[in-house]
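Notes to self after the Tuesday call (sharing in case useful).
The group wants a holo model before anyone commits to mutagenesis around the pocket. I volunteered. Ligand is TPW. Logging inputs and output together so the record is complete.
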Amino acid sequence: MGIAETQADLMARAESAPETLTDGFHLLIDALKLNGVETIYNVPGIPITDLGRYAQAQGLRVISFRHEQHAGYAAAAAGFLTKKPGVCMTVSAPGFLNGLTALAHATTNCWPMILISGSSEREVVDLQRGDYEEMDQLAIARPHAKAAYRILHAEDIGLGVARAVRAALTGRPGGVYLDVPGALLGQVMDAVEGQKSLIEVVDPNPKSVPAPEAISRAVDVLKSAEKPLIIIGKGAAYAQCDDTVRELVETLGFPYLPMSMAKGLLPDTHPQCASAARSLVLKESDCVFLIGARLNWLLSHGEGKAWGEKGTKKFVQIDIEPTEMDSNQKISAPLIGDIESCAGALLEAIGSDWQKPSEEWTGAVSAKVKANVERMAPKLRNNNSPMDYQGSLGVLKELIAENPDVVLVNEGANALDQARSIIDIHKPRKRLDVGTWGIMGIGMGSAVAAAIETGNQVLAVEGDSAFGFCGMEIETVCRYNLPVCIVIMNNNGIYRGDGENWGGGDDPSTTVFVKDARYDLMMQAFGGVGVHVDNPDALRAAVKDAFASGKPTLINAVIAEDAGRESGNIGNLNPSSVVAQARYPQAKKV
Ligand code: ADP
Ligand code: TPW
Ligand code: MG
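Result:
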């Protein structure tokens, strides 16, 4: 007997010999396991509640969240950390939409993720008869995903999962939506035939080797540079070829700038790291070599004041996505391929007699780095109470240096920008943040994923507003007893806590919160450790305790209300008008 059995045959067999049959639930679980999935980030409900239970019964780790967005952010972060698709599972319509933000975030950041959502009866949904949670999810997911598929028959589950895994990983990674109608899960078929229908994806991360001409063109451009600069992006961190990237950077001898989540790929304390001389190297360099970094808004599209005189720079770029080239600036030497293959081929081509850049250039950069680091040092040791960003983050910088395996999660505006520049990262993939969209609310999902996927201690440095987007997930942190220490940079608001209502009414300003909120008490409500601190020494002691115990901990760190700036480092992106500035004396020119 095979898949041609009638439903009546199958029903009869289910009663007499159920072990010879399988169903949509188990085929989906088996297909995921066959493709290396170990963890599902989940929120249960119709029609996937039992799918989660059965997955747990079949040895998968199923981590249930309080809201799908955070389960989704966890899956996205897991994709970045592991180079395998992170899997999120949600219910239909509202749960699906809650998860969709995270799928779009994964796609935007080029991370592999699969969002599996249950959906209602196709026949009813498509005739818009008003089904339970009726929604055409596949159509809605498509523009936000790299690919989107629906599986209608149990015998196609193997195919559907294989397509999802390959689409998520191959080439430029991204988010994939997999629509699973409830009826599919209950479909029954012969177990042997079912097993045969599963597909283990072969070589989902194929090498993509650049052409020799492309390599020699790149070598020529790099050789002709007098003031070269490397920019390393999170694509290079994702690629997991840390030694090759490091060898290439050190052999070339160029100063380099790590993008936010590429920090630590080479330690931020490396002699070639030019982070503390960012303005100088962006402005003065004559050749910029991008490794897994896009020239998007985060690099002001490779133009404008920060980049110095127009037309004075040549660009070389490694990227797996061919259409990334020339998307913002002319790329003189595109290297289209995976970073390991491209970097390896470059290393071979430049050989051992490579001439490093002049001391005049590298010395000037090092001198600027040294001067800026020295200028900053005393500010990072201040003991002000309430704290400012420097004094508090200076403490965290020390603690991360002593514990370089800790994964730092970071979101907020000032809390983000200041922590990114102050806290050095020493190892690859030890920093997770708001990514390409600058999303508030990635914190707790990322922290859970980092703890689950790496087993390491996590330190989440959160603006009080940023935390508010995901705060309920501290229950998830406590429930799974994860080694996550959350520091709330509590300045009573968005950017600053001292905003006033410009109309003079009784309502608070749009950017401020309840004064002196005790976020630490929330943590205690779930059995975690909650600590309130208002000075750097107390902060140090509390974080040390958290690292030593590994207990879920939340530290409410009191930051001065006036310590921050509007929008942190990107205030210039706020629109303004002469009319508004004339009308409101409080409006600042940015
Ligand atoms: P950042 O924000 O750190 O500047 P981006 O997300 O803008 O980084 O850029 C990452 C880039 O890395 C994307 O263009 C993506 O296509 C590319 N990428 C991802 N994985 C690889 C890989 N294995 N090899 C080459 N390029 C990659
Ligand atoms: C999903 C807009 C950017 S930064 C921020 C908001 C609301 C909060 C900044 O305050 P926080 O940090 O976290 O207290 P600090 O130290 O400056 O006080 N909704 C989403 N994403 C974004 N980026 C916003 C709103 C925003
Ligand atoms: Mg704040």
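Two things stood out.
The pocket of adenosine-5'-diphosphate (ligand 1) is lined by residues 109-110, 172, 233-235, 238-239, 259, 261-262, 292-294, 296, 298, 318-321, 324, 338-339, 436 (CB under 6 Å).
DSSP finds 24 helices and 19 strands in the chain.
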